[in-house]
Amino acid sequence: MIFVFVYGTLLVGECNHSVAAPFLRSVQPGRIVGRLFDVGPYPALALTDGDHQVVGEWLEVTEEGLQAMDVLEGYHGPGASNEYDRVWVSDVSGLREGWVYIWSNINGLKEINGSSWKVYLAQKNK
């Protein structure tokens, strides 16, 4: 199985979770080091060296699930012209590692003040 850390629209209950759902084997809460940015209807993640954490979920999916998420995230492979890049990360607990989709150029994007896309989205939509 393959683990993917999700932090935005692929989270359980969010609008794109149905992309991963048919291939889902398990879901566990998680945190990774990074910062979130607002890209409008979805977030972007930038990995950082600091201690700021992003809250999300680890989805355990099949190879087909990873391929479906690659299509959604505009990931075409290493070195390709990707909307999101897919990189290997570890949970801050050290208990899990896997893939995450990151935004390669955050210049000009509004940083989200907080660690949760769901919390930010709820406040943004008030």
Report on this model:
- The protein is α+β, with helices and mostly antiparallel strands and 126 residues long.
- It contains 3 helices and 8 strands; from the N terminus they run E-H-E-E-E-E-H-E-E-E-H.
- It starts with a strand and ends with a helix.
- The mean pLDDT is 94.
Brief digest:
This protein is an alpha+beta fold. The chain is built from 3 helices and 8 strands; from the N terminus they run βαββββαβββα.
The percentage helix is 10-25%
Low-pLDDT residue spans: none
How many beta strands in the DSSP annotation? 8
Shape by Cα distribution: globular
Total count of helical runs of at least 4 residues: 3
In order across it, which strands form the biggest sheet?
2-5-1-7-6
Structural class: alpha+beta
Order of helices and strands: EHEEEEHEEEH
